[in-house]
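Xylose isomerase: structure, please.
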Amino acid sequence: MTDFFQGIEPVRFDPQGDGDLTFRHYDPDATVMGKRLEDHLRFSVAWWHSFAWEGGDPFGGQTFQRPWFADAAGGDTIAAAKMKADAAFEMFDILGQPFFCFHDADIRPEGADFAENTANLDEITDYIGTKMERSRTRLLWGTANLFGHRRYMSGAATNPDPDVFAFAAATVKTCIDATKKLGGQNYVLWGGREGYETLLNTDLTREREQAGRFLCMAVDYARKIGFDGAIMIEPKPQEPTKHQYDYDVATVYSFLKDFGLEDEVKVNIEQGHAILAGHSFEHELALAASLGIFGSIDMNRNDYQSGWDTDQFPDNVPEVARAYYEVLRAGGFTTGGTNFDAKLRRQSLEPVDLIAAHVGAMDVCARGLKAAAALLEDGALETAREARYAGWEEGDLLDSDLESIAEKVRREGINPEPRSGRQERLENIWNRFV
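Here you go.
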Protein backbone atom coordinates (compact mmCIF):
# COMPACT_ATOMS: atom_id res chain seq x y z
CA MET A 1 0.00 0.00 0.00
CA THR A 2 1.01 3.63 -0.52
CA ASP A 3 -0.36 6.91 0.73
CA PHE A 4 -0.21 8.56 -2.69
CA PHE A 5 -4.01 8.80 -3.03
CA GLN A 6 -4.57 9.14 0.70
CA GLY A 7 -7.97 10.56 1.62
CA ILE A 8 -9.54 10.05 -1.81
CA GLU A 9 -12.69 7.95 -1.56
CA PRO A 10 -13.97 5.61 -4.28
CA VAL A 11 -15.83 7.53 -6.96
CA ARG A 12 -19.58 6.98 -6.96
CA PHE A 13 -22.39 7.75 -9.40
CA ASP A 14 -24.53 10.62 -8.16
CA PRO A 15 -26.24 12.77 -10.82
CA GLN A 16 -26.74 15.53 -8.25
CA GLY A 17 -23.29 15.21 -6.69
CA ASP A 18 -21.04 18.11 -5.78
CA GLY A 19 -17.36 18.43 -6.55
CA ASP A 20 -15.27 17.00 -9.39
CA LEU A 21 -14.87 13.46 -8.05
CA THR A 22 -18.40 12.22 -8.71
CA PHE A 23 -19.79 10.48 -11.78
CA ARG A 24 -22.84 12.41 -12.93
CA HIS A 25 -23.39 10.51 -16.18
CA TYR A 26 -21.42 7.27 -15.87
CA ASP A 27 -23.58 4.76 -14.03
CA PRO A 28 -21.85 1.41 -14.70
CA ASP A 29 -25.04 -0.57 -14.13
CA ALA A 30 -27.34 1.58 -16.26
CA THR A 31 -28.77 -0.29 -19.24
CA VAL A 32 -28.27 1.18 -22.70
CA MET A 33 -29.50 -0.74 -25.74
CA GLY A 34 -29.92 -3.82 -23.56
CA LYS A 35 -26.37 -3.75 -22.20
CA ARG A 36 -24.73 -2.37 -19.06
CA LEU A 37 -22.94 0.93 -19.64
CA GLU A 38 -19.72 -0.51 -18.17
CA ASP A 39 -19.88 -3.36 -20.68
CA HIS A 40 -20.41 -0.93 -23.55
CA LEU A 41 -17.51 1.37 -22.65
CA ARG A 42 -14.99 -1.09 -21.16
CA PHE A 43 -12.84 1.68 -19.69
CA SER A 44 -9.11 1.14 -19.34
CA VAL A 45 -6.33 3.16 -17.65
CA ALA A 46 -3.03 3.53 -19.52
CA TRP A 47 -0.18 2.61 -17.17
CA TRP A 48 2.36 4.67 -19.16
CA HIS A 49 0.75 8.11 -19.04
CA SER A 50 -0.83 7.67 -15.62
CA PHE A 51 2.13 6.26 -13.71
CA ALA A 52 5.29 6.40 -15.84
CA TRP A 53 5.11 9.84 -17.47
CA GLU A 54 7.17 12.47 -15.63
CA GLY A 55 5.51 15.61 -16.98
CA GLY A 56 8.11 16.61 -19.55
CA ASP A 57 7.61 18.15 -22.97
CA PRO A 58 9.94 18.99 -25.90
CA PHE A 59 11.05 22.16 -24.14
CA GLY A 60 11.30 21.09 -20.52
CA GLY A 61 11.85 18.10 -18.28
CA GLN A 62 10.16 16.49 -15.32
CA THR A 63 7.52 18.41 -13.38
CA PHE A 64 5.80 15.53 -11.57
CA GLN A 65 7.10 14.09 -8.32
CA ARG A 66 6.10 10.49 -7.73
CA PRO A 67 7.59 8.35 -4.95
CA TRP A 68 8.27 5.51 -7.42
CA PHE A 69 10.29 7.65 -9.85
CA ALA A 70 13.98 6.78 -9.88
CA ASP A 71 15.10 10.10 -8.41
CA ALA A 72 12.85 9.63 -5.38
CA ALA A 73 13.04 5.85 -5.00
CA GLY A 74 16.81 5.42 -5.08
CA GLY A 75 16.95 4.20 -8.67
CA ASP A 76 14.95 2.29 -11.26
CA THR A 77 14.43 -0.85 -9.20
CA ILE A 78 11.98 -3.68 -8.68
CA ALA A 79 11.00 -2.10 -5.37
CA ALA A 80 10.07 1.13 -7.16
CA ALA A 81 8.14 -0.83 -9.80
CA LYS A 82 6.16 -2.61 -7.08
CA MET A 83 5.39 0.71 -5.40
CA LYS A 84 4.12 1.97 -8.76
CA ALA A 85 1.90 -1.12 -9.06
CA ASP A 86 0.55 -0.54 -5.56
CA ALA A 87 -0.43 3.02 -6.46
CA ALA A 88 -1.92 1.89 -9.77
CA PHE A 89 -4.27 -0.61 -8.15
CA GLU A 90 -5.21 1.92 -5.49
CA MET A 91 -6.32 4.21 -8.32
CA PHE A 92 -8.14 1.37 -10.07
CA ASP A 93 -10.10 0.74 -6.88
CA ILE A 94 -10.94 4.45 -6.56
CA LEU A 95 -12.18 4.68 -10.16
CA GLY A 96 -13.74 1.23 -10.35
CA GLN A 97 -12.83 0.94 -14.04
CA PRO A 98 -12.62 -2.65 -15.35
CA PHE A 99 -9.30 -2.64 -17.27
CA PHE A 100 -5.74 -1.35 -17.56
CA CYS A 101 -3.09 -1.47 -20.31
CA PHE A 102 0.72 -1.46 -20.19
CA HIS A 103 4.00 -1.49 -22.10
CA ASP A 104 6.69 -3.70 -20.60
CA ALA A 105 8.92 -0.69 -19.89
CA ASP A 106 6.10 0.95 -17.92
CA ILE A 107 5.90 -1.79 -15.33
CA ARG A 108 9.46 -3.16 -15.03
CA PRO A 109 12.86 -1.51 -14.44
CA GLU A 110 15.25 -1.41 -17.40
CA GLY A 111 17.87 -4.12 -17.12
CA ALA A 112 21.44 -4.31 -18.39
CA ASP A 113 20.47 -6.77 -21.13
CA PHE A 114 17.63 -8.88 -22.50
CA ALA A 115 17.98 -11.54 -19.82
CA GLU A 116 17.67 -9.00 -17.01
CA ASN A 117 14.73 -7.28 -18.73
CA THR A 118 12.98 -10.64 -18.95
CA ALA A 119 13.68 -11.50 -15.32
CA ASN A 120 12.39 -8.10 -14.21
CA LEU A 121 9.26 -8.48 -16.35
CA ASP A 122 8.58 -11.94 -14.93
CA GLU A 123 8.95 -10.72 -11.36
CA ILE A 124 6.76 -7.66 -11.73
CA THR A 125 4.02 -9.48 -13.67
CA ASP A 126 3.93 -12.06 -10.89
CA TYR A 127 3.46 -9.19 -8.46
CA ILE A 128 0.75 -7.57 -10.59
CA GLY A 129 -0.94 -10.97 -10.77
CA THR A 130 -1.22 -11.01 -6.97
CA LYS A 131 -2.70 -7.51 -7.06
CA MET A 132 -5.26 -8.65 -9.64
CA GLU A 133 -6.37 -11.46 -7.37
CA ARG A 134 -7.71 -8.84 -4.96
CA SER A 135 -9.05 -6.45 -7.60
CA ARG A 136 -11.86 -6.46 -10.15
CA THR A 137 -9.60 -4.73 -12.70
CA ARG A 138 -8.39 -6.94 -15.56
CA LEU A 139 -5.82 -6.48 -18.35
CA LEU A 140 -7.29 -5.14 -21.60
CA TRP A 141 -4.03 -5.40 -23.50
CA GLY A 142 -0.28 -5.53 -23.20
CA THR A 143 2.40 -4.33 -25.57
CA ALA A 144 6.16 -3.85 -25.90
CA ASN A 145 7.89 -0.48 -25.80
CA LEU A 146 9.98 -0.69 -28.99
CA PHE A 147 10.62 3.03 -29.31
CA GLY A 148 11.84 4.52 -26.02
CA HIS A 149 15.34 3.03 -25.68
CA ARG A 150 18.12 4.48 -27.82
CA ARG A 151 18.64 1.09 -29.50
CA TYR A 152 15.38 1.73 -31.34
CA MET A 153 16.32 5.15 -32.72
CA SER A 154 16.16 3.69 -36.27
CA GLY A 155 13.14 1.50 -35.62
CA ALA A 156 12.62 -1.99 -34.27
CA ALA A 157 11.16 -4.37 -36.86
CA THR A 158 12.33 -2.01 -39.63
CA ASN A 159 15.80 -1.37 -38.22
CA PRO A 160 18.74 -1.74 -40.64
CA ASP A 161 20.64 -3.65 -37.92
CA PRO A 162 19.46 -7.30 -37.69
CA ASP A 163 20.59 -7.42 -34.05
CA VAL A 164 18.03 -4.74 -33.16
CA PHE A 165 15.36 -6.69 -35.06
CA ALA A 166 16.30 -9.79 -33.04
CA PHE A 167 16.24 -7.93 -29.71
CA ALA A 168 12.83 -6.46 -30.55
CA ALA A 169 11.41 -9.82 -31.63
CA ALA A 170 12.66 -11.47 -28.44
CA THR A 171 11.12 -8.66 -26.41
CA VAL A 172 7.74 -9.06 -28.11
CA LYS A 173 7.86 -12.77 -27.32
CA THR A 174 8.27 -12.01 -23.59
CA CYS A 175 5.50 -9.39 -23.70
CA ILE A 176 3.05 -11.78 -25.36
CA ASP A 177 3.95 -14.28 -22.62
CA ALA A 178 3.32 -11.63 -19.95
CA THR A 179 0.00 -10.59 -21.51
CA LYS A 180 -1.19 -14.19 -21.62
CA LYS A 181 -0.05 -14.82 -18.04
CA LEU A 182 -2.09 -11.85 -16.80
CA GLY A 183 -5.17 -12.86 -18.79
CA GLY A 184 -4.94 -10.01 -21.28
CA GLN A 185 -7.75 -9.87 -23.81
CA ASN A 186 -5.64 -8.37 -26.61
CA TYR A 187 -2.05 -7.75 -27.65
CA VAL A 188 -1.17 -4.47 -29.41
CA LEU A 189 1.81 -3.59 -31.58
CA TRP A 190 2.54 0.10 -31.91
CA GLY A 191 5.52 0.95 -34.10
CA GLY A 192 6.50 4.28 -32.62
CA ARG A 193 9.65 4.48 -34.75
CA GLU A 194 8.74 2.14 -37.62
CA GLY A 195 9.27 4.73 -40.31
CA TYR A 196 11.99 6.92 -41.71
CA GLU A 197 13.59 10.33 -41.29
CA THR A 198 15.05 10.58 -44.81
CA LEU A 199 14.84 8.51 -47.98
CA LEU A 200 18.55 9.13 -48.52
CA ASN A 201 19.39 6.20 -46.22
CA THR A 202 16.15 4.17 -46.37
CA ASP A 203 15.29 1.01 -48.32
CA LEU A 204 11.48 1.08 -48.30
CA THR A 205 11.06 -2.36 -49.86
CA ARG A 206 13.37 -4.06 -47.36
CA GLU A 207 11.91 -2.33 -44.32
CA ARG A 208 8.35 -3.15 -45.32
CA GLU A 209 9.27 -6.82 -45.75
CA GLN A 210 10.92 -6.82 -42.34
CA ALA A 211 7.82 -5.31 -40.73
CA GLY A 212 5.57 -7.89 -42.40
CA ARG A 213 7.68 -10.83 -41.33
CA PHE A 214 7.93 -9.46 -37.78
CA LEU A 215 4.15 -9.25 -37.51
CA CYS A 216 3.71 -12.74 -38.94
CA MET A 217 6.10 -14.12 -36.32
CA ALA A 218 4.22 -12.34 -33.52
CA VAL A 219 0.86 -13.74 -34.68
CA ASP A 220 2.30 -17.25 -35.13
CA TYR A 221 3.82 -17.26 -31.66
CA ALA A 222 0.68 -15.93 -29.97
CA ARG A 223 -1.41 -18.67 -31.54
CA LYS A 224 1.22 -21.33 -30.79
CA ILE A 225 1.07 -20.64 -27.04
CA GLY A 226 -2.74 -20.54 -27.03
CA PHE A 227 -3.22 -16.80 -26.74
CA ASP A 228 -6.69 -16.42 -28.25
CA GLY A 229 -7.10 -12.68 -27.80
CA ALA A 230 -7.04 -10.19 -30.64
CA ILE A 231 -3.72 -9.05 -32.11
CA MET A 232 -3.87 -5.36 -33.02
CA ILE A 233 -1.86 -2.65 -34.74
CA GLU A 234 -2.21 0.97 -33.69
CA PRO A 235 -1.93 3.30 -36.72
CA LYS A 236 -0.06 6.60 -36.55
CA PRO A 237 1.12 8.81 -39.43
CA GLN A 238 4.27 10.45 -38.08
CA GLU A 239 5.85 11.87 -34.93
CA PRO A 240 8.51 11.20 -33.97
CA THR A 241 9.43 9.89 -37.44
CA LYS A 242 8.83 11.86 -40.62
CA HIS A 243 6.67 9.05 -42.01
CA GLN A 244 5.48 5.84 -40.37
CA TYR A 245 4.52 2.71 -42.26
CA ASP A 246 1.27 2.25 -40.30
CA TYR A 247 0.01 5.70 -41.36
CA ASP A 248 -3.75 5.13 -41.00
CA VAL A 249 -6.41 2.40 -41.11
CA ALA A 250 -6.37 2.14 -44.90
CA THR A 251 -2.58 1.82 -44.98
CA VAL A 252 -2.62 -0.85 -42.27
CA TYR A 253 -5.30 -2.82 -44.10
CA SER A 254 -3.25 -2.77 -47.31
CA PHE A 255 -0.26 -4.00 -45.33
CA LEU A 256 -2.29 -6.79 -43.73
CA LYS A 257 -3.65 -7.89 -47.11
CA ASP A 258 -0.16 -8.06 -48.58
CA PHE A 259 0.98 -10.43 -45.84
CA GLY A 260 -2.23 -12.47 -45.55
CA LEU A 261 -3.04 -11.17 -42.07
CA GLU A 262 -6.34 -9.37 -42.68
CA ASP A 263 -8.23 -12.12 -40.82
CA GLU A 264 -5.69 -12.29 -37.98
CA VAL A 265 -4.98 -8.66 -37.01
CA LYS A 266 -7.29 -5.79 -36.08
CA VAL A 267 -6.64 -2.14 -35.29
CA ASN A 268 -6.52 -0.14 -32.09
CA ILE A 269 -7.45 3.37 -33.24
CA GLU A 270 -6.40 6.50 -31.38
CA GLN A 271 -8.29 9.76 -31.76
CA GLY A 272 -5.12 11.84 -31.74
CA HIS A 273 -3.45 9.72 -34.40
CA ALA A 274 -6.50 9.93 -36.65
CA ILE A 275 -6.33 13.72 -36.53
CA LEU A 276 -2.60 13.73 -37.30
CA ALA A 277 -3.33 11.59 -40.36
CA GLY A 278 -5.76 14.22 -41.64
CA HIS A 279 -8.88 12.22 -40.80
CA SER A 280 -11.63 12.41 -38.22
CA PHE A 281 -11.77 9.78 -35.50
CA GLU A 282 -15.16 8.60 -36.72
CA HIS A 283 -13.81 8.18 -40.25
CA GLU A 284 -11.11 5.79 -39.06
CA LEU A 285 -13.60 3.87 -36.93
CA ALA A 286 -16.13 3.57 -39.74
CA LEU A 287 -13.47 2.47 -42.22
CA ALA A 288 -12.08 -0.16 -39.84
CA ALA A 289 -15.57 -1.55 -39.31
CA SER A 290 -16.21 -1.56 -43.05
CA LEU A 291 -12.98 -3.50 -43.63
CA GLY A 292 -13.67 -5.95 -40.78
CA ILE A 293 -10.64 -4.98 -38.68
CA PHE A 294 -12.16 -2.80 -35.93
CA GLY A 295 -10.81 -3.80 -32.54
CA SER A 296 -10.32 -1.17 -29.84
CA ILE A 297 -9.78 2.55 -29.24
CA ASP A 298 -7.48 4.93 -27.42
CA MET A 299 -9.73 7.79 -26.35
CA ASN A 300 -7.88 11.08 -26.10
CA ARG A 301 -7.78 14.34 -28.00
CA ASN A 302 -5.29 16.75 -29.49
CA ASP A 303 -5.04 20.46 -28.94
CA TYR A 304 -6.17 21.73 -32.33
CA GLN A 305 -3.87 24.73 -32.05
CA SER A 306 -0.85 22.43 -31.80
CA GLY A 307 0.56 20.32 -34.60
CA TRP A 308 1.47 17.33 -32.50
CA ASP A 309 -0.02 14.54 -30.44
CA THR A 310 -0.87 16.16 -27.09
CA ASP A 311 -2.75 13.16 -25.64
CA GLN A 312 -5.29 15.13 -23.63
CA PHE A 313 -8.30 13.65 -21.86
CA PRO A 314 -11.53 13.94 -23.88
CA ASP A 315 -13.78 16.85 -22.97
CA ASN A 316 -15.99 17.29 -26.06
CA VAL A 317 -19.26 15.35 -25.84
CA PRO A 318 -20.42 15.87 -29.47
CA GLU A 319 -17.01 14.78 -30.75
CA VAL A 320 -17.02 11.69 -28.54
CA ALA A 321 -20.62 10.87 -29.53
CA ARG A 322 -19.57 10.73 -33.20
CA ALA A 323 -16.98 8.11 -32.30
CA TYR A 324 -19.32 5.96 -30.25
CA TYR A 325 -21.98 6.14 -32.94
CA GLU A 326 -19.54 4.31 -35.23
CA VAL A 327 -18.53 1.91 -32.47
CA LEU A 328 -22.17 1.00 -31.87
CA ARG A 329 -22.88 0.72 -35.60
CA ALA A 330 -19.99 -1.74 -35.76
CA GLY A 331 -21.66 -3.89 -33.09
CA GLY A 332 -19.72 -2.51 -30.13
CA PHE A 333 -16.55 -3.79 -28.56
CA THR A 334 -15.84 -7.49 -28.23
CA THR A 335 -12.36 -7.86 -26.71
CA GLY A 336 -11.52 -4.18 -27.18
CA GLY A 337 -12.44 -1.18 -25.07
CA THR A 338 -11.96 2.51 -24.32
CA ASN A 339 -8.37 3.05 -23.21
CA PHE A 340 -7.44 6.48 -21.87
CA ASP A 341 -4.12 6.96 -23.63
CA ALA A 342 -4.20 10.44 -22.14
CA LYS A 343 -1.98 12.36 -19.77
CA LEU A 344 -2.28 15.21 -17.35
CA ARG A 345 -1.05 18.65 -18.29
CA ARG A 346 2.46 19.15 -16.90
CA GLN A 347 1.15 21.80 -14.48
CA SER A 348 -1.35 19.36 -12.91
CA LEU A 349 0.87 18.23 -10.08
CA GLU A 350 -1.48 16.82 -7.44
CA PRO A 351 -2.49 13.14 -7.18
CA VAL A 352 -6.15 14.16 -7.13
CA ASP A 353 -5.68 15.69 -10.60
CA LEU A 354 -5.11 12.19 -11.98
CA ILE A 355 -8.37 10.96 -10.47
CA ALA A 356 -10.32 14.02 -11.60
CA ALA A 357 -9.04 13.70 -15.17
CA HIS A 358 -10.30 10.13 -15.46
CA VAL A 359 -13.62 10.92 -13.76
CA GLY A 360 -14.30 13.74 -16.20
CA ALA A 361 -13.27 11.66 -19.20
CA MET A 362 -15.44 8.72 -18.14
CA ASP A 363 -18.42 11.04 -17.75
CA VAL A 364 -17.82 12.63 -21.16
CA CYS A 365 -17.64 9.18 -22.78
CA ALA A 366 -20.79 8.02 -20.99
CA ARG A 367 -22.70 11.10 -22.18
CA GLY A 368 -21.40 10.59 -25.71
CA LEU A 369 -22.29 6.92 -25.86
CA LYS A 370 -25.79 7.49 -24.49
CA ALA A 371 -26.41 10.19 -27.09
CA ALA A 372 -25.13 7.91 -29.84
CA ALA A 373 -27.29 5.05 -28.62
CA ALA A 374 -30.40 7.26 -28.52
CA LEU A 375 -29.72 8.38 -32.07
CA LEU A 376 -29.31 4.81 -33.28
CA GLU A 377 -32.48 3.71 -31.52
CA ASP A 378 -34.36 6.64 -33.08
CA GLY A 379 -33.28 5.34 -36.48
CA ALA A 380 -33.66 8.57 -38.43
CA LEU A 381 -30.08 8.67 -39.71
CA GLU A 382 -29.97 5.00 -40.65
CA THR A 383 -33.34 5.26 -42.41
CA ALA A 384 -32.04 8.21 -44.43
CA ARG A 385 -28.84 6.33 -45.26
CA GLU A 386 -30.76 3.28 -46.48
CA ALA A 387 -33.10 5.45 -48.55
CA ARG A 388 -30.15 7.12 -50.25
CA TYR A 389 -28.92 3.77 -51.61
CA ALA A 390 -32.33 2.15 -52.12
CA GLY A 391 -31.92 2.06 -55.89
CA TRP A 392 -29.18 -0.52 -55.55
CA GLU A 393 -31.51 -3.05 -53.94
CA GLU A 394 -32.84 -4.07 -57.34
CA GLY A 395 -30.90 -5.26 -60.36
CA ASP A 396 -27.44 -6.66 -60.83
CA LEU A 397 -25.54 -3.64 -62.14
CA LEU A 398 -22.27 -4.58 -60.41
CA ASP A 399 -22.33 -8.01 -62.03
CA SER A 400 -22.70 -6.53 -65.50
CA ASP A 401 -20.17 -5.08 -67.98
CA LEU A 402 -19.74 -1.76 -69.75
CA GLU A 403 -21.32 -2.86 -73.04
CA SER A 404 -24.41 -4.25 -71.32
CA ILE A 405 -24.74 -1.17 -69.15
CA ALA A 406 -24.44 1.15 -72.16
CA GLU A 407 -27.20 -0.80 -73.93
CA LYS A 408 -29.41 -0.57 -70.82
CA VAL A 409 -28.94 3.20 -70.62
CA ARG A 410 -29.87 3.61 -74.33
CA ARG A 411 -32.80 1.19 -74.17
CA GLU A 412 -34.37 2.61 -71.01
CA GLY A 413 -33.54 6.22 -71.76
CA ILE A 414 -31.76 6.65 -68.44
CA ASN A 415 -30.94 10.34 -67.90
CA PRO A 416 -30.58 10.86 -64.12
CA GLU A 417 -31.01 14.15 -62.26
CA PRO A 418 -28.92 14.86 -59.13
CA ARG A 419 -30.54 14.09 -55.77
CA SER A 420 -29.97 16.08 -52.61
CA GLY A 421 -27.66 14.62 -49.99
CA ARG A 422 -29.70 16.46 -47.34
CA GLN A 423 -26.61 17.01 -45.21
CA GLU A 424 -27.90 19.99 -43.26
CA ARG A 425 -31.12 18.16 -42.38
CA LEU A 426 -29.15 15.18 -41.14
CA GLU A 427 -26.91 17.45 -39.08
CA ASN A 428 -30.02 18.98 -37.53
CA ILE A 429 -31.20 15.49 -36.55
CA TRP A 430 -27.78 14.78 -35.03
CA ASN A 431 -27.74 17.99 -33.02
CA ARG A 432 -31.11 17.20 -31.44
CA PHE A 433 -29.43 14.33 -29.61
CA VAL A 434 -26.12 15.87 -28.53
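Notes: The radius of gyration is 24 Å.
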